[in-house]
Amino acid sequence: MIGLVLLLGFGATFVLILVIFSVVKRALEEYEGRYTTKGTQSLENMFFFVTTRQLLVLTVSVSAVFFIIGLVALNVVVGLILGAFGFAFPLLGIRYLKKRRIAKFERQLVDALSQMSAAFKAGLTLPQAADNIAREMQPPLGQEFGLLVKEIKLGIPMEEALSNMAARVNSEDLDLAVTSTNIARQLGGNMAEMYDIISATIRERFRLEGRIKALTAQGKMQGWVVASMPLVVGAAFYYFRPDLMKPMLHSNFGIALVGTVFIMEVLGMLMIRKIVNIDV
Description:
Elements: H1 2-45, H2 52-73, H3 76-121, H4 126-136, H5 141-153, H6 158-169, H7 172-187, H8 191-240, H9 242-249, H10 252-276
Helix pairs in contact: 1-2, 1-3, 2-3, 3-4, 3-8, 4-5, 5-6, 6-7, 7-8, 8-9, 8-10
């Protein structure tokens, strides 16, 4: 009788493991199809070539490391929270790299437009001016213009090649330059003067954004200080009176309280960033 019960228990456990494995496998396939594909496309647009499977393995590995750190440091609940954050960490990193690349591209675009204006005044054509930019400018702008020149040499129309570059970079300033270029090529116009005007407009926007950042820096710093105070106070109490902090961190009420404080801190930081984030 005992042997039959053990056999049924092992069989049920085996079936449960198979079900969990199939569910996890299906979830990973769905995640790979939806999110890691977008991540790899973003990386390819930044000239980082990674397969979806490599990005998925990296995501799972980071999540596992974060879970182990939380499990060893505190408990299972904290480990699960850190594991969930680690699962989203690679995609957040890709978004940060993309945003930083766009900002660098826009800074380079100002000088590139001035150089193209000078090239038009010297009698060069648009493909020749783009080829000079590709050879003289540093990445990422040099990479994008280099790919633009290669597409033109392969027979892709200029308007389509410019639109492809604008879609890859996803920059509002580049969209403005590409749209103005395509319209000027179709209707006619002074390309050199147009690029000078666009360059001056982007420079003025950078100046206004710098002034706004200087004026809102104090508000952002106050937000960081206020958000870090509970963490600093909690760490100080944990260091000086661990007999008071450990029971809270190892009880359900304490964990719920810490989670509530963390959520409220994140919401407060998001609200502060929303207030001081001014688009020009």
